[in-house]
TrEMBL record:
Single Gene Ontology MF annotation: metal ion binding
Domain Cation efflux protein transmembrane, chain residue ranges per copy: 95-267
Cellular location(s): Membrane
Keywords from the UniProt entry: Ion transport, Membrane, Transmembrane, Transmembrane helix, Transport, Zinc, Zinc transport
Recorded topology in the membrane: Multi-pass membrane protein
Stated name of the protein: Cation transporter
Gene Ontology CC: one annotated term: plasma membrane
Length: 270
């Protein structure tokens, strides 16, 4: 697509954009702006380039509504040629990460229930929350903005409900109404997901791609690896201390992360 004389490039700094979830939320938030011709995300640098026609005011206001600590850095005319984004490729990527996250959710939720581990359950719901964001992005393709907001609202409240139930269970167990978690299952399942995420990160880095979605996936997978190590460490501490508290602490932290994601999704429904 050739750039027109009135084509502008606006650069935004978005401090709280640190994983693909935020990227997809921003894409959905900007859906329905015909003047936007292309979005370029640089998640490691927390930067978004918007190629658009006309003024940037409405675009800036829409991004600001997300409260991602965004700021407009520059707006200038741009020249040259750039290709329109490949919707088919985006769908393929979204389906891939959705399946991966939902697969990890299924494994960890079953293991977490069987092992009475709030850490594993919390990690599973974190993966489910990510899958919800990707699912919302897929549903938004070709749909009206009103439909998108309705789906986002329902998904956000569902995710918030899960986080509230999980956190309430953590409090109940802190009061002593629970069995000891099976630390062996915590360690083994977390190690399994750690290996899977490490392989994914290796393949992503091996590709040496400069594409935004690949860079975002690398950051996202790195965060998942940190969580996996945290749950494994909690399992070890459960064994060493012979108490359920390390598992409850990591579980409580993860449920707060899930709740934070739910509030971000609900912002789309405004």
């Amino acid at each position: 697509m050739s750039a027109k004389s009135d084509l502008m490039k606006s650069t935004f700094r978005i401090e709280k954009m640190d994983c693909p979830s935020e990227e997809n939320i921003i894409r959905m938030k900007l859906d329905g702006f015909p003047q936007i011709k292309k979005l370029e995300f640089d998640i490691p640098e927390r930067t978004l380039h918007v190629y658009h026609e006309g003024k940037v005011d409405q675009i800036e206001a829409r991004i600001a509504e997300l409260n991602f600590n965004s700021s407009l850095q520059a707006t200038q005319p741009t020249e040259g040629i750039f290709d329109a984004e490949d919707a088919g490729l985006q769908r393929k990527i979204l389906w891939t990460v959705l399946i991966i996250n939902f697969g990890f959710f299924a494994v960890e939720i079953i293991a977490g229930i069987l092992a009475a581990s709030m850490g594993l359950i919390g990690d599973s719901l974190d993966n489910l929350a990510d899958a919800i964001v990707y699912g919302l992005s897929l549903l938004a393709v070709g749909k009206a903005v009103t439909h998108k907001k309705q789906v986002a609202k329902l998904s956000g409240y569902f995710q918030l409900l899960l986080a509230a139930i999980g956190f309430a269970e953590v409090v109940r167990r802190f009061l002593g109404f629970a069995e000891m978690p099976v630390f062996e299952v915590m360690i083994i399942v977390s190690a399994f997901t750690l290996v899977g995420n490490s392989i994914s990160l290796y393949l992503i880095n091996k590709a040496k791609s400069q594409e935004a979605h690949m860079q975002a996936s690398a950051i996202f997978t790195s965060n998942d690896i940190i969580v996996n190590v945290g749950v494994m460490l909690a399992g070890v501490l459960v064994q060493v201390t012979a108490t359920r508290y390390p598992d409850l602490v990591i579980g409580g932290i993860l449920f707060l992360v899930v709740a934070r994601g739910a509030f971000r999704i609900l912002k789309l429904a405004k």
